[in-house]
What does this fold into?
Amino acid sequence: MHWNGGGLLFFFCQLFCAKTSSSRSATEGRENARGARKSLRIECSTLASARNATVYLLDPANGYGLSRRGTNGIRCIVVRSDWQWANQPFRDDIFWPVCYDSEGSKTLFEDYLYAAELRARGMDAKQVHEEVLKEFGRASYPNPARTGVAYMIAPIMRGYTNAPEPATVNMPHYMFYAPNVKDADIGGNGFSRQYPFFLNMNQGRDDYIILLVGETEKAKILVDSKDMLGQLCSYRDYLCTTAATRARTPVNEQGLPVYLAIGKSLPDHVQRVFRQFQGRQFIA
It folds into this structure.
C-alpha cells in the first residue's frame, strides 16, 4: 500500500512557538508569552488529511479538551502521559500522535483522556496506572468489541524504549485491535520490519497486531513532512530526525526488545509482554 496524503489518515504536527523580542512592547511580549504557553499546552497539534476527524489538544492543567469536532468517528491526540509505565515517572518529553477509529475512540482512546485528567489532578504515574486499571471490566468502560485500527503513522514519535530515557524514532505503523489474539494465531515471530507481529499490553483490551509501513512509504512520509520535522527539531533537540532516529526501532542491536533493559522498573504486566519476544528470531 502506498502512502497518499489525500487518501490515508496521517498526522501533521506543527508547533506554534511565539518568540519574544526585546524591541517589542510589553503588550506584545505578554501576547507572545501567552502564545508560547499555548504552544506548550498543545505541543504538537494532530490534524488529519481526511479533515473530518475529531482532534483533542492538551491543557496540562485540566487534561485534553476538544479542539475540533469531526464527523467520521475518528479521534486524534498526541499522547503525553503514557499510563502503561507505572514505575516510570511522568515526563514532559513524551510525544506520540495517534488516531483511533470509531471502535477505539469509544474504548482505548478513553484510557489516555482519563490518564491526562488524573495527571492534571496531581497523581503520579503509579497512581494513574492503578486508577485506569480499576476501570477495566466495568460495563461503562468496555473493551473493544471488534477489530479496528489505530493510526500511528506520524513521521516521528518519542516514548519509552530503553532505560532510563525515552527515545525518538521515525517508525510509522498501524495498530490493529485484536482482542485476546496471540502472536502464534497470526504466525508472528516477534518484532518485524516487514511482517505483522503481535503486542499485548493488557489482555483482552490492549491487544494489537502491529504492522510497520514499508520503507518506501516511510521515506515518502518523512519527505512530505520535512518542513514540520524541521520545526520540531528547532523546538526541542530531542525531536530532531537523524540517521539514528530513522534506523531506531523498539529492538536493540542484540535483537532483544530494549524494554527488557529496564527490568524491574517496568510494571509486571509490561515485563510479561516483552518476555514473549525473548529467544525468538527477529526479522529485519
